[in-house]
Fold each of these.
Amino acid sequence: MIIQKTTGLKGTITVPGDKSISHRAVMFGSISDGITEVTNFLQGADCLATIDCFQKMGIEITNTKERILIHGKGLQGLQKPASALDTGNSGTTTRLLSGILAGQSFESSLSGDDSLNSRPMGRVITPLSLMGADITSVRENGCAPLLIRPSKLHGIHYRSKVASAQVKSSILLAGLYADGITKVTEPVLSRNHTELMLKGFGAKVTSVLETDGISATASIAPFPKLEGQKIIVPGDISSAAYFIAAGLLVPNSEILIQNVGINATRAGIIKVCQDMGGDITFLNKKTAGGEPTVDLLVRTSPLHGTIIEGNIIPTLIDEIPMIAVLAAFAEGTTIIKDAAELKVKETDRIETVAVNLKAMGADITPTEDGMIIEGTGTLHGAKIQSFLDHRIAMAFSIAGLAAERETEILESQCVDVSYPTFYKTLNQLQK
Ligand code: S3P
């Protein structure tokens, strides 16, 4: 994809449905009784991989552009798949599904693409094994392919070292099949879509902040009666992030992004942009299924550096590539720390952000748990390697809109993972 420097992005857009919520709707609908109807489902490769996995386990799922219909068969209704389940590029599919599969009476295996099969799965293998699961890394390297054999699960109280919604959700889903209560304490509350949505399906889930006001414990009771739901998926704030940044960076812009999910466990990007001087207005606040949405009005703004650390990190972890680009165009220093989780995303995003920002002339120093960026106000176009990471491709496409000369994004089709219509929406704003 070739991106030219531009001015005056104007218009009203919507972004596709939230990726995390779309995955969960298919998973929870499949193990509930009756029909689950999902509207504004994200038709990205990751979520389509989740649909495919459940279809391979005998769940009838119809997918028209307007809605997804899932004919759930209840907690015990999944069937042994004929072959390994292919989770593609999707960490959420792999880790959450591991929790569900640990509780089944059949053997199964999970495998994905090269990126997925090199990401750490020990973080779910360890707690699921403590629950009694028989789950192994086939190559004994702590990564997928994973082999999961039937076994009896029991509830545990797991204290996770990482604030990871994928880990928390995997354990809670296994907890549906355990004898006794399952609890997960995490150092900082991570995205809570599982807790909110599973409650809607009828599970007995609780979530409390600990007395320190930072760490949080979620708990779940086994074998609830789950019933099909109507789920309206809010627009994905992680996808909106690219157009928030475009609106702030590109001169003379004004973009209205409608129906964006702003769950507090996800909305750190907005606070950071406002802290950097970004002009963002909330309009039309609504709530559905416990998930709040707003329309975001974004206008071009002079930005300055900031410090991003501590508890806010889990609420914006996927947006850090985009924030790093904003920081490079801002005045002054931006420090990002406590974000070592970046190293185990679709790529090592400390490295892939640094390589590409340097190629565009930015002053960036990668660190063990983040990066330091000296804003220079301008960048120049470059050949950008996406490394097949959707968020790298999109963040640097936005950088290209504000950089001098021309930017080329290599293997830009990887945006299909979470945002197949990304370049179409970008074009729409340039007309
Ligand atoms: C996700 C959780 C986050 C996030 C990922 C989606 C989820 O990962 O980065 O894109 O849907 O639960 P971690 O749980 O590994 O932090």
Amino acid sequence: MGKFRIRGGRKLAGNVRVIGAKNAILPILAAVILTRKPVVLYDFPHLADVENMLLILQSIGCRIKRENSTLFIDPSDINSWVIPDRYVKEIRSSIVMLGAVLARMQKAVITYPGGCEIGQRPINLHLQGLRQLGVIITESHGYLECEAANMVGADIHLDYPSVGATENIMLAATRARGRTVIRNAAKEPEITDLQNFINSMGGKVAGAGSNTITIDGVESFHETEYTVIPDRIVAGTYLVAAAITGSEIVVENVILEHIQAIVTKLRETGCMITPYKGTDLGAIKIKAPPRLWAIENTKTHPYPGFPTDMQALLMSALTVSKGTSIITENIFENRFKHVPELIRMGARIRTEGKIAVIQGVPRLKGAQVSAGDLRGGAALVMAGLNAEGVTEIDNVRHIERGYDKLDEYLRSIGADIERIESS
Ligand code: UD1
């Protein structure tokens, strides 16, 4: 069991590079099995969730080789349609394997993914969409047994623009006969990346990024090489690290359009954020004021709204702002687990239902705290960078699901943070 130990109060300086996006690579790894030809993925992030997804691919017959951040996958010999329980329990988002396995094997068996740290997370919209494509789904003893002998394109309206449901339906529909239209689809950049990846193998998907996506079924796919988009939440994390420590840093490998909602909020706190021309990759520079300003109102929404994955991180910055801020969490029902931990560090926060009221204090104080989920854990790291004295965060396995060597990256820009093994 690992811990982060942070001595807060250091100013950060220099350049830090963002890795490939976790939420883009996971559905792309599922999509790899649509083809029988080799696939090469560049800028491949080393994350616990992604490692688990690779184990799933290996368990159904993919051969995988890695050289630094390049991944070679040979999906020619897939021999199983059963997605093993133990991985689905580890990584909830492996549910996107369902659509991909159905497209490749015309059947699939997967355990019903339960809730997780941040909420119940039902999959009714995934299943409704797949059934509309003609998939016969039997639910028994916690398993979903699916048959897709005759998938036919359909006009599917999602009740809510679910990211995972949009991806699962897109994946299955690539092999359905005729055209599928997904209306009220999720518009997240990771959906567009999935479309671009599928099309790079010869798929016919259009409209991702808007609320209507069309998928024309194709007979087969060819080989491809692809570079995944940078992680917008990791980019936002570094911006918060600068904001909460009153620092000036450059964040490299960002697509500004993808982080517009985050940039807008941080500008409201008084940070100056400008495009930076000094590197080959897209980059931005952030210069934080000595003390942040409070933000009257922030509400999480589907993209292009303010992302729920940044809620805890923004909250950590607002704990040391001047004035009172209000955050409303609209997407997940149990996403304030970081609040009691931030309070242990001296933050003044009250929550009621999905609303948190944050009264800024001049500075946080180091404490022993525990990461309860991925982004909430990262928010505690941010808080530790600000806090007076030593902060120790245990359960860092939650953080490592979505951040590759966060301690090393933060140390490279001047943070005093180390990862230690705890008993
Ligand atoms: C994805 C992201 C996650 C992010 C979330 C919202 C991945 C691997 N994860 O999760 O980091 O926080 O989008 O931006 O990409 N819902 C239903 N029925 C369904 C599906 C979803 O009611 O069938 C509800 C969920 O409970 C939740 C909301 O819809 O309240 C949003 O969920 P969804 O967009 O599906 O998120 P994920 O794809 O699970």
